[in-house]
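Lecture notes, unit on protein representations.

Consider one protein chain, 402 amino acids long.
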Amino acid sequence: MSSTESPSAPAASVLPRVAPVRVGEGERLRSVGLPGVTLSVRSRPPAREGLPPALYVHGLGGSSQNWSALMRELDGVVDSEAVDLPGFGDSPPPDDGNYSVTGHARAIIRYLDAAERGPVHLFGNSLGGAVATRVSAVRPDLVRTLTLVSPALPELRVQRTAMPTALLGVPGVAALFTRLTKEWTAEQRVRGVLGLCYGDPGRVSPEAFQQAVEELERRLQLPYFWDAMARSARGVVNAYTLGGQHGLWRQAERVLAPTLLIYGGRDQLVGFRMAGKAARSFPDSRLLSLPEAGHVAMMEYPEVVSGAFRELLTEMGEFGGVGESGSVDSSGSAGSFGGVGDSASAGPSGGVGDSGSAGPSKGVGHSGSASAGPSEGADVAAPGAGSATAAGGDVAATSAGS
């Protein structure tokens, strides 16, 4: 059993009472009990019946609240649900203490199987992108499309700014960090995270900043907060070292779903240089580059991410509301994709770059060219082909998350 699988957090039934999690206007929060894990699920009532389901998976240190802005943007387009991964947000620790990428992917698969909502439009950010990639590879029947925002895919040269997060996975470092920073206020911690995750922290409103502070204060009262952070970081680092058929890049090659990749030019945690490799690895991919965005583009530029996703649906023949030419309208939605070499304009209202250009967008291959490969994911306890692991730099802190 790996070090990421040793249970050490108290059972959910004996956890202390803390302040309730914030539920935004128009949102609902419910708890779903599954074998070995309990997940908190944030949702928005669908604008009308029959909308296709979507599921959102946050990154290390984040929560389902990271997706609230994008969920609002996609009202009337999809039936949105966002999960709190085990040990994060309002979800208690998993019964087995497994915070590995495999453990998180297993939780998502169990939820989708139990909810019978699949296939879903699956979204993932950073660590959540690694988890979503694994789910897509081993259970293609559950995934309709895949949208990855700064996914934590293995990098040969990890950015210097991502190293402190990776070090959280080293045994004893989290405890040392806790002692060294015990005098830090929640405000100081949140400012540090926003500076790391946002291309422009000034885009965060005072109200949103205060909400992040309150959420961090709540989570710091949980006895398993640092344990969940450290073990999840260790799980990412462990996955980072795996290669061959268990490597995440190999899994990316087996993803059958049409894939939208979104990378920020100011991302300090996932290298912008990895965008091209990702576009080449996912068989049916489109790439949207946002030069001014950081690690959480869905929080910084939700209208642009929403527009890009709408265009993906338009390309698939499932959505027709992007306009005649597919170009940007006053809401800041992203421009058309097309084939290899086409460009996607984000427009000035999207707030991305001086010229408003969102960078190149290209489709690589077709879903029919990917094979599911041999079964390798028995630890996920579900049918389907392939196995996946992932790694990358995620943020070590709060609801701004990664």
